[in-house]
Amino acid sequence: MSTTTTEYQVTGMSCGHCESAVREEVSAIPGVTGIDVSAATGRLTVTAEQPIDDAAVIAAVDEAGYEAARS
Amino acid sequence: MSTTTTEYQVTGMSCGHCESAVREEVSAIPGVTGIDVSAATGRLTVTAEQPIDDAAVIAAVDEAGYEAARS
Description:
The structure is a homodimer.
Chain A: E1 4-11, H1 16-26, E2 32-37, E3 43-48, H2 54-64, E4 67-70
Antiparallel strand pairs in A: 1-3, 1-4, 2-3
């Protein structure tokens, strides 16, 4: 099985709770198999079974209360 | 009914999630009827039916992951 990894920059996260909020929303996107997120760097790395829709990731992060951009 | 209000200074909160975590733990203390907490100022104000045990409040804040001191 191949996987695809996509990186985003998230602004506004300040702590582990923020990371958890982003993780929870992004993990609900179909096909997502892995998430790495850091409040310290703002980096969000999403691993999926196949290329995921940037808009879906950005919308999920927005739902969590933060802003993401493909990096 | 009389109430008593006690103020604490909490260090380490950075966002609304942190405030919620503190609020959740402190609200579990018997007798607590009101909580005001601000990540911006670190101020935690606890209202209770009768004087509350500082140690209980400090322990609850510790449980949430932060440090409090009576102010």
